[in-house]
Amino acid sequence: MIIKPRTRGFICTTAHPKGCEKNVLNQIDYVKSKGEIGTVKRVLVIGSSTGFGLASRITSAFGLNSSTIGVFFEKPPSKGKTASAGWYNTVAFETEAHKEGLYAKSINGDAFSNEIKEKTIQLIKKDLGQIDLLVYSLASPVRTHPVTGVRHRSTLKPIGDAYANKTVDFHTGEVETINIEPCTQEEIDNTVAVMGGEDWEMWINALKEENLLAPNFKTVAYSYIGPKLTKAVYRNGTIGKAKDHLEKTAFTISDALKDVNGEAYVSVNKALVTQSSSAIPVIPLYISLLYKVMKEKGLQEGCIEQIYRLFSERLFLDKVPTDSEGRIRIDDWEMRADVQEEVAKLWEQVTTETLPSIGDLNGYKTEFFNLFGFHYDDVDYNLETEEVLDIPGLQKTS
Ligand code: NAD
User: Fold this and answer.
1) What's the CA gap between 149 and 171, in Å, rounded?
2) Is 234 a catalytic site residue?
3) How far apart are CA 139 and CA 221, in angstroms?
């Protein structure tokens, strides 16, 4: 079929297999150009099909020579209907990994469920024996709790006071004021249930019970802090409470890993255009200004540069460098004082009229469409493209 982007709000409902392949190949090329980091034999990535999780799987395979199992929740294709981008990303990733003789298998389903955990456990037992690294990179708006059956929905709201600030509709470039009413306690609890650390800990406990964690096992989950101007809606808001919980969970997990000499970390990553971040109010405008400043200073990084730096300069050092709260920081360039001062100045000036010159709205838009395989110069979008592609190592789920 001829595949064009079809957007609804901050999502694109179509994806292009060739463009997604391009996205994955670019990331693999980046890792290969930087060189091998070392060897970590067996890696499980939860949320491995897009964003930071995909970059983690690619860096593991092509930078650490790892066998990888990826777990994700993506829509398969059918005749006349494209798959979601993460499906095509995984097709491209597995194809390249297999070409190089690397083990790569995938499980598509709800990672919060007991069924998908059990499926993953069986696959590890059968094929890998144990795992050396688990990357937890889920971003989801909902979670059905596997014990209570309650379906929790996360919200992005301030706590205590209403919040008003600028935001942009990145499709039209219109900058307007957004007003967000404060949340209820129930909304905080629900957001923590979805994006906090409980499910991460459940994965670790389930794997540990089956003796699937190798000696010196490591696990890492991803967090965000961000600047003062998004604080009320991000770090001090409902999602921030979930991140607090995730960060605390790293200590609980580390304690539970003592007998395998294991360690759990949270890495605070940089703000980037991903399917999840484009849904957060205010953040796309902040990112448009941040990208402009970071590009001018030669500091700009995407998911793959961030994760390569995390793996090569932080996570596998004998002594892992952390901040006073025990977190790894690869948001260090975003949070540099000179970067933040410039972004804050631009924030004061930004309007619909000034954004095209003082911000990088085009960069934002291009990256947004790239997430779905569109807007790549060297992909011909007028060509007939096969939309029904199989993931070679996809495991059957009921
Ligand atoms: P993303 O939307 O690109 O990726 C989310 C992944 O989770 C996908 O692989 C998706 O298939 C998977 N997923 C979602 N629900 C699932 C489910 N129920 N079962 C199985 N898989 C499921 O998101 P991202 O931006 O890469 O975020 C990953 C982590 O990084 C999150 O914890 C996020 O808070 C954090 N982070 C993001 C940013 C940013 O700016 N994007 C910055 C710092 C930290």
Assistant:
1) 38
2) yes
3) 11
Q: Which helix (H) or strand (E) holds 23?
A: helix 17-34
Distance CA 70, CA 120 (A): 9
Nearest C-alpha neighbor of 44 from the set 277, 208, 194: 208
398 pLDDT higher than 80: no
pLDDT in tens, 296-333: 999 999 999 999 999 999 999 999 999 999 999 999 99
24 close to ligand 1 (CB < 6 Angstrom): no
Instruction: Look at residues 268, 213, 240 and name the one whose alpha carbon lies nearest to residue 155.
Output: 240
70 has which bridge partners?
45, 106
User: What is the 139 CA–ligand 1 centroid distance (Å)?
Assistant: 3
CA distances from 302 to 35, 174, 273, 330 (A): 17, 25, 8, 12
Q: Which atom of ligand 1 is nearest to the CA of 239?
A: 34
pLDDT in tens, 248-266: 999 999 999 999 999 999 9
The helix-helix angle for 361-371 and 17-34 (nearest 10°) equals 110
87 pocket-lining for ligand 1 (C-beta < 6 Å) = no
Average pLDDT over residues 343-350: 97
Task: Output the pTM of the full model.
Answer: 0.98
From 6, 47, 22, 81, select the one nearest 373 (Cα to Cα). 22
